[in-house]
Amino acid sequence: MICLLCHTEYTIEPTFHQLFLLKDSSPGLCTTCHNKFQLITPPYCSRCYKPDIKDVCSDCKIWEKEGIIVNHQAVFTYNKAMEEFFSRYKFLGDYRLHHVFYKYFQTEKGYTIVPIPVSKQRFQERGFNQVAALLQQLPFSSLLEKEEGPAQNTRTRNERLKNKNTFTLKAKVKMPDKILLVDDVYTTGRTLQHAIAVLKQGGAQEIKTFSLCR
User: Fold this and answer.
1) Three-point CA angle 90, 96, 99, nearest 5°
2) Which of the residues 145, 157, 165, 213 has the least number of beta carbons within 10 Å of its own beta carbon?
3) Verdict on whether the full-model pTM lies above 0.85
């Protein structure tokens, strides 16, 4: 097999369990590339999974002052390897990478998965919604639309926190009671909180959030 990131050839020795179930465990990456990604391990913020925090991080304390108790989970730290991954996948449009982390996205009983959308302009430029593509193996509902605005990666932290809400509900959507809202990267939390506000205005009763990276 050829690694999707470094393009070197690699092999996988499947376990008996994988052979029995006829499942391919390969994420499309060689061991060297895969090991560069860092899983979030304790200690981390109990509310948003920010690494190296023993209790509640300063970001979540700021949200609490606004009356919001963050309920977020993430899998990986946004390290150099992950930055390079998203540069290839998200900004250079390498769609082949969408399945690399599929096994880290799972359904939660009773919850409807909702991906954060991209604007029509961004979709035309990229050719896909990077969050929806990550969820391709799972059932999800696209309930939200997004107006065009400055790309998040071009904005400072303070600018992101001051962003206006660019999300709206799609017309005639059936709003589920419980939602698992999914994004690719959690930075300040503003994007997710804007989306949560719109979904709650539309009738959602309970919303959890999840991202690949924090």
Assistant:
1) 90
2) 157
3) yes
